[in-house]
Amino acid sequence: MKRIAVLTSGGDAPGMNAAIRSVVRVGYVRGVKVIGIYRGYRGLLEKDFRQMLPRDVSGILEKGGTVLKTSRTIEFKEEKKQLRAIKNMKEKGIEGLIVVGGNGSQAGSLALFKKGFPTIGIASTIDNDLWGMDYTIGFDTAVNTAIDAIDKIRDTAESHDRTFIVEVMGRDAGFIAMDAGIAGGADIILVPEVKFNINEIVDDIKNGMKKKKMHHLIVCAEGAIHARDLGKIIQERITIDTRVAVLGHIQRGGSPTRFDRLLASALGEKAVDALLDKEKGKIVGIKSNKIVLIPLEQAVTKKKKLNLKLYKLARELSV
Amino acid sequence: MKRIAVLTSGGDAPGMNAAIRSVVRVGYVRGVKVIGIYRGYRGLLEKDFRQMLPRDVSGILEKGGTVLKTSRTIEFKEEKKQLRAIKNMKEKGIEGLIVVGGNGSQAGSLALFKKGFPTIGIASTIDNDLWGMDYTIGFDTAVNTAIDAIDKIRDTAESHDRTFIVEVMGRDAGFIAMDAGIAGGADIILVPEVKFNINEIVDDIKNGMKKKKMHHLIVCAEGAIHARDLGKIIQERITIDTRVAVLGHIQRGGSPTRFDRLLASALGEKAVDALLDKEKGKIVGIKSNKIVLIPLEQAVTKKKKLNLKLYKLARELSV
Amino acid sequence: MKRIAVLTSGGDAPGMNAAIRSVVRVGYVRGVKVIGIYRGYRGLLEKDFRQMLPRDVSGILEKGGTVLKTSRTIEFKEEKKQLRAIKNMKEKGIEGLIVVGGNGSQAGSLALFKKGFPTIGIASTIDNDLWGMDYTIGFDTAVNTAIDAIDKIRDTAESHDRTFIVEVMGRDAGFIAMDAGIAGGADIILVPEVKFNINEIVDDIKNGMKKKKMHHLIVCAEGAIHARDLGKIIQERITIDTRVAVLGHIQRGGSPTRFDRLLASALGEKAVDALLDKEKGKIVGIKSNKIVLIPLEQAVTKKKKLNLKLYKLARELSV
Amino acid sequence: MKRIAVLTSGGDAPGMNAAIRSVVRVGYVRGVKVIGIYRGYRGLLEKDFRQMLPRDVSGILEKGGTVLKTSRTIEFKEEKKQLRAIKNMKEKGIEGLIVVGGNGSQAGSLALFKKGFPTIGIASTIDNDLWGMDYTIGFDTAVNTAIDAIDKIRDTAESHDRTFIVEVMGRDAGFIAMDAGIAGGADIILVPEVKFNINEIVDDIKNGMKKKKMHHLIVCAEGAIHARDLGKIIQERITIDTRVAVLGHIQRGGSPTRFDRLLASALGEKAVDALLDKEKGKIVGIKSNKIVLIPLEQAVTKKKKLNLKLYKLARELSV
User: Fold this and answer.
1) Has domain B140-253 been given CATH number 3.40.50.460?
2) What pTM was computed for the model?
3) CB contacts, 8 Å: D182 with chain B
4) How many residue pairs bridge chain B and chain D with CB atoms within 8 Å of each other?
5) Hey, which of A115, C27, D131, D138 would disulfide with D304, CB 3.0 to 4.6 Å?
6) Record: fold of B3-138+256-301
7) Which top CATH class is D142-252?
8) Identified catalytic residue from D48, D56, D127, D155
């Protein structure tokens, strides 16, 4: 393989730049030309290609977002677009493609593979919802950002003896909420993976107040319930001062953490080496603290399970 | 004067703890007993008093929120409550009161003064809307938190070529929005003090796109327009990808900055010295980089003006 | 077991408070009395004991350092002191001891176990040098602090086209240097585990300059070479502007990250459950992303190896 | 005036990029061509000039360091170099020069003015030692970085009951030390402007220990005494555990704060307008919260005084 391409797709995640840098530099070291494709699959269709050399990725390691830019992937589901994408790559002599992104983006990568084009995915989404791996690039930074926000909110909660409901991202998964909840010292964590009962939440708060816990912190995943809705219900049931905080897009940005910079660097290297080893239709990720290769088919279609031991731990710690 | 009290009231602001620490330690150095009143005016009514010594305020300088806790002040507007508060203080031998807080809280301080009790205010609100002074305790930290969030959001805005509308706090004033907007590199800043025209905003964005500005950042004060409403209008008029971020309560918390720690320390010292100098019915603040004493009557009733030169500067910088 | 104790010992590490909180609260949930021992083994000898209830550990999750305080362990190597420690615990009805700390501290824990007292260690040191586990509490935060510092230093390095040598902690191990180096984008990383040749370093810099790399960043472990010494050698050999930064104690403090808060919470729970399950003479840690129990004897005496794949990756990324 | 130039010189300071951006964009709005000169006076001598348009300064507002790069100014003191610099600018049609930097850099700016070339300085140095103004660009960020480091170090000081001596930058002035000391809660602050007596420091620590202050924090300016030297003296006199931290270059870098971004933006605008108003040989700065123009001659030669009220405040707060 003499020429490979790399694109970032879907929601941006901190560490994507570190992954791009790793692909470009490791590719260079292995003697392969690396082509950057701009704006995800859109750039693949519009031939927005540029060769990338080691110095082109200087100074991006610490930056959030993605210098290759990104786009949503909805339109890429049409077969004729996929074929055009492959044609565009072949015209430029590109023999393999590395796709940095989450679930939806890897579905595109899988589609191209099924049409016969060698692709390797790099697992990158703040939601951490890709099957077969423990962590995806961006998750650690996103949770740290959420924790930082929760720590600030707790200052106000304590000062006012208030109950706060903090809504975090994660789409239909509770990974961010679970980690941010435990690390943020939440009294109650609500995730889509565990059914909850409003009456029990109300009882928990009432019991807490009896134990002189004057402020409460609830962290909820956007996929479990909206903070605003929960806030209304609680205020109808208990006469307490309740406030709502939807952390929103700040969770996507920012300079990546140690964890995400290292993970992205290691996955970038592995993705290049996998392509050169004639691997395809796979995704690189971290599992049991080892870099692994997993079939894209499984990573994309299977549902990753939340570690329910953490849920139990969270309950104990909020005693 | 042998015994003075201090309370924090209204919305908490980073640096309130630094002010409490300064009042307690400077009071001690001046040979005065300092009584901490818990939960603002509510504690004043419920006699929630505790003496504070220098070691009681160790380790709080860097903490957001207020260790004295705070409460909203609405109920304190009744005259009979004000009289009861004075009675409670006199019973404990308290001869002067320092009130750390913003506009509403200083109205309470003014009321007590008018009823004959010596009070001195310390200007503390993230909104920075107290007349007669350039800055209030908490504003600098709140804007820095907003900037940090905006920097993160810009990562995503750039990666997706998206327009972002970021709503910041400030109640009916635009101080946070103006500073956060300029420091955050906003293309458009909307504040309650300056009328704006939706058509012009739409034109600005269209012109920006012609100049290859692919992402736009609008910072709006909550008192000017709600980000959500503006977002809907823009998306109806222009076919661009628009997102909304309401920063919310994270702006209140967090460890105070240099500016707020120093300001709070200096104002705490000045407030104690003012009481000992038989000053009353005044508020301490910073004006032209000097610590000043201003009649509470004026600080509370007059409307502080936004520096419109900054508005002009903001327009130039977003060229 | 009805009554257990917990102490923190050796160099403090971010996350120790999260571990204490977890031990106290999980202990409470399991119906066990938890005694906090102050100032490490010194408090054990001086009977500085206090019972800890769930509310006693409120608000410490996010704090660096250790509320139980800590001390160095040198004197605890004498047998008669170990026997006195056991006597002191037995007098108070303490049946098991949890020791939060690194290598030296766990040697004390091992000694007590060998004398017949049930002990469980919790692996906590920023150095990450405990055998048998992938990470110890505090390491992630320390490296993130180092990265943050390196990011700042790079601003100056770039602005002045300067070579910077940054010395990080880690005692005789290179774990902090390796991770901080890769994540900080270092051109050269020096660790005690890999022999290096000054001539090669000098050649690397010269080659970099030929490739228009105008600034260089060297990260060295304190156990490999002192930055000051290396700086002198480089400046004698190449006429470049060189500066030295010894990060020092800032690496120990600060609010713990997601990783350290979660790890500490999980290890605290596991340590309590291990004691209740009649485990002893072991240490809890994380291995392959699972919480594991390892004999203290091995953890303390065996030498943990640095992952040399990372060293290769670092070389490739600095191309 | 149709064409002006801008350069950054001397030690880099956070906010220099914000100043460059402001000069470039305001210049564009005023219809003036703005030329960026690279690497300070060295680039002026070597004709390292490039025109800068508004989009060339996109994304630099939040970055530490300087995209124009910088160099030390020693060699620029020769008259013939100054004349060559003026010749180089005239050749390119440059009619006015804006110099962003501190004392030494403004001496160069003054020299060019004396040789007949219109120059305006922008006060930028973390040391804050320019006469005639309250603050210089970079100071606020540098102190906030120092405070952040001190907050971390205090975690360890408290955990070990240790005395820490933290050395901060500032060359021969104590501005950073004074603000970082007060805001960091230092027990003792040593600055070059105030004579100190080692015996008194030792007595202070001994008295603190009697009052159960088990850890002490000393902040010293590099211009007052070196932390290492002070540490040795203290350890010889008192049997306490003492540690030293030299904060070093981290104080120069990092993303600028609200204060520095706004100050740099306002000073950039003012510098352009001053040149267009035919002002020359002056420097723009902030005084009493207003943007002012001061003769370079005075700013460069007079010695700025430290506010000794702060020194008194610091003593009271460490009671």
Assistant:
1) yes
2) 0.97
3) 261-262, 265
4) 107
5) D131
6) Rossmann fold (3.40.50)
7) alpha beta
8) D127
